[in-house]
Design goal:
There is one protein chain. The protein is an alpha/beta fold and 180 residues long. 34% of the residues lie in helices and 20% in strands. It has a five-stranded parallel beta sheet, with helices on both faces. Strand 3, helix 4 and strand 4 form a beta-alpha-beta unit. Helix 1 packs across helix 6. The radius of gyration is 16 Å and the shape is globular. The termini are close together.
């Protein structure tokens, strides 16, 4: 099976997206995948400075936690990004991390399938569109990869609220179990 890397990007305690990510991970493990989950909580991830040195060296000049995460991203077969939706877009820390993955662009990365799990207070159909589009823009830069699927769980707001959302937990589990 695949080596799956799940990156949760919420910084909130008792995060709903983290709770659903737990179910996704459980489903992926039950499907036989080798799964690692990284949370951005307490990680030092600075903004890309746009120097583009990484395009020649395949290494970032900034020494922070994004360097280690990029190495794990490079060596995973499957990526899953988990984010709360803020103002109809992915979390800022997720976008910052994606920008810092620039050293991977010219590298021999392994990932082929990319997925997104998102949560939000709002529950209308169009809520995750811009977040999915933003991740699609990143994936489009990696010609051997594709955005394979996304799952949106809306109508979840208060910290810890996902603990009582059985249907969403089951959806996240099934999403994880179906990862390729």
């Amino acid at each position: 099976m695949s080596k799956v890397l799940v990156i949760t990007t919420s910084l909130r305690a008792r995060s709903n997206s983290d709770r659903l990510a737990e179910e996704l991970v459980r489903g992926a493990k039950d499907a036989g995948h080798d799964v690692e989950c990284i949370s951005l909580k307490k990680k030092d991830i600075r903004f890309c400075i746009g120097c583009l040195a990484c395009q020649k060296t395949l290494k970032c000049v900034i020494k922070d936690d994004a360097v280690e995460i990029a190495e794990k991203v490079k060596n995973a077969d499957t990526l899953v990004f988990v984010t709360p939706i803020y103002y109809y877009e992915m979390s800022g820390q997720m976008k910052t991390l994606l920008d810092r993955m620039n050293p991977l662009y010219p590298s021999d990365y392994k990932f082929r399938k990319v997925y997104m799990l998102s949560t939000a207070t709002e529950d209308e159909d169009g809520v995750p569109e811009k977040a999915v589009s933003g991740l699609q823009g990143w994936v489009a830069c990696f010609e051997k990869a594709e955005l394979a699927d996304s799952l949106f769980c809306g109508g979840i707001s208060d910290a810890g609220e996902a603990d009582g959302k059985q249907e969403e937990q089951h959806e996240a589990y099934r999403f994880g179990k179906a990862l390729e």
